[in-house]
Amino acid sequence: KNQVEQSPQSLIILEGKNCTLQCNYTVSPFSNLRWYKQDTGRGPVSLTIMTFSENTKSNGRYTATLDADTKQSSLHITASQLSDSASYICVVSVNTGGFKTIFGAGTRLFVKA
Amino acid sequence: GAGVSQSPSNKVTEKGKDVELRCDPISGHTALYWYRQRLGQGLEFLIYFQGNSAPDKSGLPSDRFSAERTGESVSTLTIQRTQQEDSAVYLCASRLAGGASYEQYFGPGTRLTVT
Q: Across the interface, which of A31, A41, A46 has its CB nearest the CB of B100?
């Protein structure tokens, strides 16, 4: 069964600190993996996308890694800011030539001053 | 350019009433998705439209749910005889094409509350 699991469910950190969010998937055949950021009351916005051959991708203070062998990804946030408070969703696309995307439940990040 | 828009932003309805939610995708985007997100939960896929192909309705939870799309433009999601468990945020997303590598752009969602 195609599944995407994220951990932790929620996380509280102090402003300026780093954190790492985890994503494990059992999706096959794998096409790509995206991390989305969803602010409260808004739709998700894509942060990074990685295909099978890519093992790291950065977007400003966000760095995503992918280990296609172990089917794990992480999102590292450096020097967190209050505006980083949001849900971070891991999304894996299935390579069927079609549309299928599997969403994780998300990690809720709270950055405190 | 304009993003994906959804209306209304909030909808409160009584149990048993029908509701219609609207999504205006980004112009030129051939793929359109509807998702449901219950409070504190992940996104649940509902339905997918791609060009003139038959929509994939495999995610619709019951026959009370239906959706239509006019060509490659606006889409409406209809929920008949609403139930309290239908309370959720309904998100619409559009994508440039059907390929998995293209990003889905999400609208702000419609928050539905069934009382």
A: A31
